[in-house]
Amino acid sequence: MPISPIPSFDMDILYISDLDGTLVNNKAEISDFSLQMLQELVDNGLPFTIASARSIVSMQQMLKGLTLNLPVITFNGGYISDLESGQHHLVNSIESEVSRQIYESLAEFDCVPFLSTYTGNEERVYYNQVTNPGMQWYLQERITRKDPRLTKTDDLQHGLREQVVCMTIINRREILNELEQHIRELHGARIETHQYENQYDPGWYWLTVHDRRASKDQAICELKKNFGLEEKRTVVFGDNRNDISMFKNADHAVAVANAQPEALRHAHEVIGSNEEDAVVRYLANHWRGSSL
Predict the structure, then answer these.
(1) In 3D, which of 31, 32, 28 has the Cα closest to residue 53?
(2) Is 237 exposed, middle or buried (0-12, 13-18, 19+ CB in 10 A)?
(3) Which residues is 56 bridged to in the sheet?
(4) What pTM value is reported for the model?
(5) pLDDT at residue number 12
């Protein structure tokens, strides 16, 4: 991507950050410094929000104590939600026939998904068999955090009758590469897929399947259109492959130093790492000329 000029930092810009590997540290925690400084900046008018692959429940737990003035983007654009209440302003679910066909094809690859659904009133994460350590990590993480969405079922197809917002398949990379190619060949124009290594459980990869409307760049467009932000330029922060769509469409894309090579190639600027509170320091150093 050609280098663009560093934008002037003013009220005409909307700032949007990824969470894992970007705003939070390698323990999936936001530092006290970042939390306090970010809240101060938001309280003083900083137009800021978050776009993450995480659910609103997980985001609320991770960012406890932070109040934002704008909705957040969750599930890579599956939802646009209010951080404090958890209410969803927009839900992008997979077409029911598509989700059914994808579910049926998983058996060919000996894969079992976690199904993230929306009933119209609440979110659920359905699971049945746990067939590998990567899946066990995912399950245990949600048990530890007392995730209210977690629902064990004898028949995962029950979840297909609800609005399926995301299918998460966890396995080794070589298996998911073949599975992703197969899914995209069958449903490419109707779905979005993301594959990445779980940075907290190396060696195990996640393949997430969403509706075609569920990507960070499209969700940012919807956010701007529906909340009176269309005239604002966008500055985005990220580190991974699922951030590339918003990097490509932002006015200024900022990668943290620990970003994946694919993301770095699309960045206009590289700052410090997620372990150095780099995103919040960047905001504080530029917002209305303030400095630390």
Answers:
(1) 28
(2) buried
(3) none
(4) 0.89
(5) 87
